[in-house]
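Per your request, structure below.
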């Protein structure tokens, strides 16, 4: 009998003894214990990265004078944690109630991605961060930063990249899909995104960037950009913000089987005027507000852009990863990336 995989990427890659230590660490945080359990070490701490539901966890552990490792929690009372947990559960259930049932992992993950892009504004938890500092007795309090946990995106509908990635990880895990939270941890250029296993194929998902090229006046997206759903390791190398040394081995192959453009027929392998015209007719027939095309290389993209602009009189906006965004109705505030990889707003 084949044992079903768990949705926990890190745990799935541990031997039985390491899994025992993993469970001890996660259990300690769930019980709000002050230090790591006996028999575990700093190396076992990465277990918590599999569990975005532990939103009351402030961040890294710290070694104290006796050599033990102190667990850092946000400054939340038990009552506040219970209240926030209830809000998270309610929001998650409400979103997952509309997820595809009986479909593929890809369909379910696309629903989660599009939901995150449409419903979450990019915003820091300035109020929560302001709570950090020394209290009246001189004891440091960690405050809270819900923009980097599932609470901000799910409950308040705002967050930063860490919150987006935690939300995607949490909802995919709730749907039984193995998902890894990935972060490069750079100062000033830090970023977080996900690796997910969809129907046996690993791919990258970055809901933060799915909204960043297409903001309207409210701060919410004018449309959902699919550049960042199901992209591959070869795509990853085109964007410097993803440069990092993995803290855990990534899958050996993160390919293009889940690429949204390939799966939905909006990928342009080579330039063919009739084929481009056919894609435009399809987009208009489907009443798309914005047609998105991913092209194999810049030469093909230049030819497709010239056809759409010169023959059809359309404006084309260049995204990263070889993507063209072509508004067909309305006037969404799009952005594109010029030759030196800097963002330009029309």
């Amino acid at each position: 009998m084949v044992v079903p995989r768990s949705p926990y990427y890190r745990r799935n890659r541990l031997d039985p003894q390491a899994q025992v230590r993993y469970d001890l660490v996660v259990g300690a945080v769930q019980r709000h214990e002050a230090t790591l359990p006996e028999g575990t070490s700093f190396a076992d701490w990465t277990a918590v990265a599999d569990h975005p539901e532990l939103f009351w966890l402030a961040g890294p552990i710290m070694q104290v004078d006796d050599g033990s490792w102190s667990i850092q929690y946000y400054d939340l009372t038990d009552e506040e944690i219970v209240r926030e947990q209830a809000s998270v559960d309610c929001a998650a259930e409400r979103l997952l109630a509309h997820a595809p049932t009986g479909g593929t992992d890809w369909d379910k993950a696309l629903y989660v991605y599009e939901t995150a892009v449409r419903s979450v504004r990019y915003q820091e938890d300035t109020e929560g961060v302001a709570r950090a500092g020394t209290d009246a007795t001189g004891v440091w309090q960690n405050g809270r930063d819900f923009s980097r946990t599932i609470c901000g995106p799910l409950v308040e509908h705002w967050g930063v990249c860490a919150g987006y990635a935690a939300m995607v990880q949490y909802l995919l895990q709730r749907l039984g899909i193995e998902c890894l939270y990935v972060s490069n941890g750079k100062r000033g250029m830090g970023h977080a995104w996900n690796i997910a296993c969809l129907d046996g194929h690993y791919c990258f998902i970055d809901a933060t960037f799915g909204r960043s090229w297409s903001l309207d006046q409210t701060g919410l997206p004018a449309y959902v950009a699919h550049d960042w759903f199901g992209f591959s390791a070869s795509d990853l190398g085109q964007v410097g913000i993803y440069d990092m040394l993995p803290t855990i081995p990534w899958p050996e192959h993160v390919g293009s089987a889940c690429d949204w453009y390939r799966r939905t027929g909006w990928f342009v392998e080579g330039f063919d005027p009739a084929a481009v015209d056919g894609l435009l007719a399809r987009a208009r027939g489907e009443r798309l507000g914005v047609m998105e095309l991913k092209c194999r290389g810049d030469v093909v993209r230049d030819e497709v852009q010239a056809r759409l602009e010169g023959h059809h009189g359309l404006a084309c906006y260049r995204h990263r990863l070889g993507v063209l965004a072509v508004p067909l109705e309305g006037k969404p505030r799009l952005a594109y990336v010029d030759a030196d990889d800097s963002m330009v707003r029309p």
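The chain is about 35% helix and 15% strand.

Regards,
D.
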